[in-house]
Amino acid sequence: MTAVTVLGQGPMGRALTAALLDAGYRTTVWNRTEANAREMLARGAIWAPSPAEAVAAGGVTLINVVDHDVVDAVLETAGRALAGATVIGLSSDTPDRARQTAELVDGLGGRYLDGAIMTPTDTIGTPDARILLAGPQAVYDTYHPVLDALGTSTWLGEDPGRAAAFDMSLLDLFWTAVSGFEHALMMAAANGIAPRELLPHALGIVDILAPVFIEIAERIEEDRHDDASAPVSSTAASVRHLVNASRDAGVDAGALEAFSGYVDAAVAAGHGADEISRITAEMVQPAAGSPTRKFRWQHV
Ligand code: NDP
Hints:
50% of the residues lie in helices and 11% in strands. By secondary structure, it is α/β, with parallel strands linked by helices. It has an 8-stranded mixed sheet with strand order 3-2-1-4-5-6-7-8, sandwiched between helices. Bound molecules: NADPH dihydro-nicotinamide-adenine-dinucleotide phosphate (NDP). NADPH dihydro-nicotinamide-adenine-dinucleotide phosphate binds at residues 8-13, 31-33, 36, 64-67, 70, 74, 91-92, 117, 120-121. Residues 159-282 form the NADPH-dependent reductive aminase-like C-terminal domain. Belongs to the HIBADH-related family.
């Protein structure tokens, strides 16, 4: 059984360490603040006084700290200890930051697989934990058993930015949905409706979103926006009413105004009769020097 090092002992780093110890892995840990590692040391983890000594102790090094600025700083501190080492990054950040970390580790002579943890700490060590990985498939295949001890993992491709790209896209959906729900509660509240009164109706909206997502995804991928069941023009009117209702309620309408701007731009571009999937084109800035908006997956 390979030895494992975990750099970072925040709530998630401790959950990862606990799962590895439970699975029987010899686990070495390092953390900026030693006191935060005490719980895992009491459970059998081995303390390393520096990132370099921690990396040297392990067959594979997991790093889980707040973001990739800290990831890079910690790995740079480990320096030459990374030559020949394998690092699996499990911190959340942008796709470009993940790619930069991969370059840093490559430059130091190591191998880097980037990961995004999609579920909370209490899932770690159970199949309910979802971890997305990207980078060299050979590294993923080699350390699959270690990842299995943490949860259910999925490898997404060789580009080390790909797991972070999934992470960011899904967090985009999550936080805009949470923001939309909280905004709706404030609009309701301004009209005398209590959150728990609105809730069952809000959950009804959640139920109808799945088929809407499927239709939009298919239409965008096929670049097919005609034969509309939800035309852009009627969405424009509906969102305008929402902006007005929000202002009347004294609730900030900024997010709705931004969406209204995309819808109005689609109408102005002559797409009023098209399906709402057409609105996405107004969100994307054309690449410098290009007259059209192209998606990267259209080239692959
Ligand atoms: P944090 O995001 O707060 O990260 C805490 C860890 O980062 C600690 O080990 C902390 O060290 C370290 N750290 C912060 N700043 C520095 C620094 N300047 N130098 C060295 N180390 C530093 O908490 P989590 O453990 O919850 O999250 C870790 C990562 O996991 C994040 O990227 C997060 O997005 C991701 N994640 C977390 C989930 C969760 O449910 N918690 C779910 C999914 C992903 P110290 O103890 O010394 O402060």
